[in-house]
Design goal:
The protein has 203 residues and is of the alpha/beta class. It has six helices and five strands; from the N terminus they run E-E-H-E-H-H-E-E-H-H-H.
Length: 203
C-alpha cells in the first residue's frame, strides 16, 4: 500500500520535468541542480523532500530514481560563477543546464521555489515547497543533494581542514572557524559573508 501523499504529476497528458537545487546557502562548493522526468504511474512510499530523508535513504533513492526515470540530469555551477552572477541566477543557471542535458525534452516544468527564468518556450510553474508536493521535484531534490554531497566529499580530500565531508560547505561554526584560521580556498564563495560571526546565512 502506497501511503505517500506526493502527487505524480500536475498535468497528466504532457511530459513534465521536476527541477530542484542543492547548496544554495553554502559558503563553499557549487550550487547543484537536477531535472527528472518520471513515468506518470510512478509512486513511492519513501521519496520526499531530500531534507526529510536520511543520508542512507537518499543514497538508496538516488539509484532507484536513476533506474526508473525516463530521463534525468544533474548540473553544477561553481563558486566563481556564483560570485559573478549571484546565487539566485546561478541556481537557475544550474537548473537550465540540467534541463539541457535531458535525453527526453519536457513540455512543462515543475520548479521548486518561487523564482525561475523562462527556459526557451517551455511552460513552467514555480511551487514553494514543491519537493514535498510532487514526486518529480522530490526526485530532483534527492539527485541534486546526493551528487553535490559526493562532490563535497571528493574535494574534502584536498582541503580536509574545513570539514566538508561533514558540513558539505554549509556555514557551521566549525567551517567558519576553519576559514578564520586557514583563510579561503578556490571553492569558497567570495561574495558570501565568509568571515561574519553569525553561524548561518540567509537562504
Amino acid at each position: 500500500m502506497i501511503y505517500n501523499m506526493l502527487k505524480p504529476f500536475l498535468y497528466k497528458n504532457i511530459v513534465e520535468a521536476g527541477c530542484d537545487e542543492a547548496g544554495r546557502g553554502c559558503l563553499a562548493g557549487p550550487v547543484t541542480a537536477a531535472a527528472v522526468i518520471l513515468p506518470k504511474n510512478f509512486r513511492h512510499e519513501v521519496l520526499n523532500d531530500s531534507k526529510q530523508l536520511t543520508a542512507k535513504q537518499r543514497d538508496i533513492l538516488k539509484n532507484e530514481i536513476i533506474e526508473t526515470a525516463l530521463a534525468w540530469n544533474v548540473a553544477f555551477v561553481g563558486s566563481e560563477e556564483i560570485d559573478r552572477m549571484n546565487i539566485l541566477r546561478a541556481s537557475i543557471r544550474a537548473m537550465h543546464l540540467a534541463l539541457d542535458g535531458l535525453s527526453v525534452k519536457p513540455a512543462f516544468l515543475l520548479i521548486d521555489g518561487n523564482k525561475f527564468f523562462p527556459y526557451g518556450n517551455t511552460g513552467y510553474k514555480t511551487i514553494v515547497r514543491g519537493d514535498s508536493l510532487y514526486f518529480s521535484i522530490a526526485a530532483a531534490s534527492v539527485l541534486a543533494k546526493t551528487f553535490r554531497d559526493e562532490y563535497m566529499i571528493s574535494i574534502h580530500e584536498e582541503f580536509p581542514q574545513y570539514g566538508w565531508d561533514k558540513n558539505k560547505g554549509y556555514a557551521t561554526s566549525f567551517h567558519r572557524e576553519a576559514i578564520r584560521q586557514h583563510g579561503i580556498t578556490p571553492f569558497h564563495r567570495k561574495s558570501f559573508l565568509l568571515y561574519e560571526t553569525q553561524l548561518s546565512i540567509d537562504f
